[in-house]
Amino acid sequence: MDSFTSAISSSTRRLLRLAILAYWTLFWAFNVLDKAIGGAHFLWVGRDRFAQFQKYFESVGLGSPHVANAALVVAGALEIFAFLYFAGALRFEWKEQQDRARQWGFIGTLLTLGTFTFFSIGDHWFGDRFELLEHTLFWFVSLASWVAFLRLPSDNTVTTSPPAPMPMGQLRAAIGLALVLVAVTATAIFRHSASDFPKRTAALPAEPAGDHIYKVAFPFLGGSTVFENTLAQFKAEHPEERIRHIYTVPTPLRLKKADALIFYIHTEDAP
Prior knowledge:
Layout: H1 3-6, H2 10-37, E1 40-41, E2 44-45, H3 49-59, H4 65-94, H5 98-126, H6 129-150, H7 168-196, E3 207-210, E4 213-218, H8 224-237, E5 241-248, E6 261-269
Antiparallel strand pairs: 1-2, 3-4, 4-6, 5-6
Helix pairs in contact: 2-4, 2-7, 3-4, 4-5, 4-7, 5-6
């Protein structure tokens, strides 16, 4: 153990180990929830991952919702396994079973590195450089946090060798619970796909927001076809009015729609 690590008290080292495991447990828990819930709801403003994946695959000519669903299920499965193993590591660390915590944390870290590698490949494929930067940074953060975890044992012995295999009972329990969560998440993804995929082309309702002002909440999944169909529907429903301007809401004001574009239609009486 180096002089810096040895200067840290045993209780502080344990607290730091718990913090590392708690961070990754919460990180993956919220990522799984984001995929299971999808979109903005009461007390939850997440990102519509189905819409995001759908746009990604459509950009490379794979517009079928089944492709986006399959990719989301794979991503969700990786995240669920990572969450469960970090949660298990956190539980064992809390119970001061360092060997078990190290076993579960090691697998959780491998799953985390694999997940971010999988995402980074997709970022290259779809040309999303911002997401690539984010996932690459998290890849190195995950690796660095595992190295820090190993160098912060509760005693004065730093262990860097791979941990021993975990008992089969624990492994079966973790895999069984993970499969249940994968099934629940996959069901939520497919239901969300079935309900939201038509939004790619369906016209949107225009809600009155004032005198000759109408508001339209544009879905993240929608494209130019939705915009054109919405205008056609609006003209058919309001023949007595003529559109003067169409303008969008500034980004800082879009508090309730994390992924959606909100635009307003300003009209006047038709001559």
